[in-house]
Specification:
This protein has 219 residues and is of the alpha/beta class. The protein has a single domain (4-209), classed as 2-Layer Sandwich (Nucleotidyltransferase, domain 5). Helices cover 30% and strands 24% of the residues. It is built from 6 helices and 9 strands, in the order βββββααβαβαααββ. It has helices at residues 63-69, 82-93, 103-112, 129-136, 144-150, 161-181, and strands spanning 4-13, 23-34, 38-48, 53-54, 57-58, 97-100, 126-128, 189-192, 206-209. The strands form 3 sheets. It has a 5-stranded mixed β-sheet, with helices on both faces. Strands 4-5 form a two-stranded antiparallel ribbon. The chain has a two-stranded parallel sheet with strand order 8-9. α4 (129-136) packs parallel to α6 (161-181). The model has no long low-confidence stretch (mean pLDDT 93).
Length: 219
Amino acid sequence: MENEIVTVLDIETTGLDPHTDHITEIAAIRAEVGPGGYIREIGRFQTYVALPDVNGEAVEIPEFITELTGIKAEDLRGAPSVWSAIGALLAFVGEAAVIAHNIPFDLRFIAANHPLGDVITYPHGFACTRAMSRLIDPDENASLAPTCERYGIALNGHHRAMNDVEATLQLYAVLKEKAEVNGITYRNVVVDSPERPLTYTPPGAIVRTIERKQTKEVA
């Protein structure tokens, strides 16, 4: 197991469908990750994202999203457009491996809101900590909060982008070592399952189907 440079990212949105919903916040941390849970932070990126006008009317943040994330309309005033925000994010990512929890969700929103769409590639690949959790513990809940709790990782202020990135970075360092010690392939792997079907397959992804005996994940 060697040290590697990664960029962990998280995107907050007004909903689940990038064709009807919109990005409100993006955060990322670039770091060096190595054996024994080693993490050396290199830099951070965070921005709110302005909501567009649709048919002449400003998009509003649904009340339940504000309750979930704490993000309000006034937080987004003066924020960059989604194209500018994603362009800045991709520049920050550079050639590092991209990490996220449930990465198909984040990459789907990036693709839907960038002129290159699905042509965007990540030279050093990506890893999904949710998929890693399913590969390592297939019968456990792989949502971010219970997975962090299972591994003793603090997750404060869940559903705010930087808070989720901080926890995901720590989680990746743990799961990376467990996967490599056990010979589990995780790079570019995404998971499909009957209880949580895959809605987007990133370019170059390897799809693994895993069924879980326990109850359905909720977040």
